[in-house]
């Protein structure tokens, strides 16, 4: 089995290769033509081999590179290809909300699976995205990776910044054997929210170390408000943890100003990247490419 890491996921791909017993690992050659078009080339002998191609699709450029790499791997004679998309871009539009809109999650699923035998993602915006694939598709979770990290740190209470993340924080609480709670959120606009404490907190907050658990941190507005709310209620320390750390604009700096620590997995390169989903992805590969 060969592992190839696209430019958006090179470090994670190398970690996956190590989890697979130091499987052969390669980085494609990429360049831009004078007119801006992308060129890619994969190296190594791939004929008759199983290939794991790892590339997040945060940007349009990342997506185009993935599609070109898939074709290059197929043209190199690979026996089977498992495409790993740690961060699956365009997954937010998983249904048509207004007439004339595309279902972008479905569109990307159809194109990504064209030259793939199986697809693996991590913490999709909506699990329904898996239903758009006609080939085997699997979703890994970033929760175990964050849990492995938090086991080495003091944690008194796990908190979801809203009730939409209850299942996520509940699973984390089960892994760490810690209590949990979910804040009550009222959204003002795309970047501003109003948060309040629930009436059923499992413990007093004063002096406690609280970790906010989310799947994606984008602009950081919700996490910042949650940290401020907890701070006003006397917590001893506040940390923030997520699977996908987008941290757009000044989000990282704003969160850093109101928290003691920020944790993210390596689905995307970011300054909070401290936990790896490589073991969790490697665990799914025997199901994606069965012997």
Would you give an account of this structure?
- With 291 residues, the protein is α/β, with parallel strands linked by helices.
- The protein folds into 2 domains: 153 residues, Rossmann fold; 123 residues, Rossmann fold (3-Layer(aba) Sandwich), CATH 3.40.50.
- Helix content is 29%, strand content 26%.
- It has 8 helices and 16 strands.
- A 6-stranded parallel sheet has the order 2-1-5-6-7-8, with helices on both faces.
- A hairpin with a 5-residue loop joins strand 11 and strand 12.
- The longest helix has 16 residues.
- It is globular.
- The mean pLDDT is 95.
Indicate the low-confidence ranges by residue numbers: none
Summed up, the helix count is: 8
Q: Find the structural class using helix and strand composition.
A: alpha/beta
The share of residues in extended strands comes to 25-35%
Instruction: Give the C-level CATH assignment of the largest domain.
Output: Alpha Beta
Distance between the termini: 11 Å
How would you sum up the global shape?
globular
Per the CATH scheme, the topology name of the largest domain is Rossmann fold
Number of strands: 16
The quaternary state of the protein chains shown equals: single chain
Q: What number of domains? A: 2
Taking the sheet with the most strands, its summary is: 6 strands, parallel
Q: Assign a percent range to the helix content.
A: 25-40%
| CATH-level-2 architecture of the largest domain | 3-Layer(aba) Sandwich
Average pLDDT score: 95
Estimated radius of gyration: 20 Å
| Spatial strand sequence of the major β-sheet | 2-1-5-6-7-8
H and E string: EHEEEEHEHEEHEHEEEEHEHEEH
């Amino acid at each position: 089995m060969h592992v190839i890491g696209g430019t958006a996921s090179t470090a994670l791909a190398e970690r996956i290769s190590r989890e697979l017993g130091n499987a052969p690992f390669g980085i494609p050659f990429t360049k831009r033509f004078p007119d801006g078009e992308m060129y890619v080339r994969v190296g190594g002998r791939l004929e008759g081999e199983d290939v794991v191609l790892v590339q997040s699709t945060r940007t349009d450029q990342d997506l185009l590179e993935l599609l070109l790499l898939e074709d290059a791997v197929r043209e190199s004679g690979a026996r089977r290809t498992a495409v790993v998309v740690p961060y699956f871009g365009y997954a937010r539009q998983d249904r048509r909300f207004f007439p004339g809109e595309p279902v972008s999650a479905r569109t990307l699923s159809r194109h990504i699976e064209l030259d793939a035998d199986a697809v693996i993602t991590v913490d999709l915006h909506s699990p329904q995205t898996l239903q758009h694939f006609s080939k085997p598709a699997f979703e890994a979770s970033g929760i175990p990776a964050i849990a492995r990290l938090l086991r080495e740190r003091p944690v008194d209470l796990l908190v979801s910044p809203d009730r939409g993340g209850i299942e996520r924080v509940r699973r984390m609480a089960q892994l760490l054997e810690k209590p949990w709670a979910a804040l009550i959120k009222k959204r003002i606009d795309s970047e501003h929210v109003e948060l309040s404490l629930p009436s059923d907190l499992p413990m007093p907050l004063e002096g406690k170390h609280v970790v906010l658990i989310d799947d994606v941190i984008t602009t950081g507005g919700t996490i910042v408000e949650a940290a401020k709310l907890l701070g006003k209620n006397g917590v001893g320390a506040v940390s923030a943890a997520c699977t996908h750390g987008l941290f757009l604009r000044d989000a990282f700096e704003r969160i850093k100003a109101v928290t003691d620590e920020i944790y993210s997995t390596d689905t995307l390169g970011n300054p909070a990247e401290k936990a790896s989903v490589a073991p969790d992805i490697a665990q799914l590969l025997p199901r994606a490419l069965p012997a």
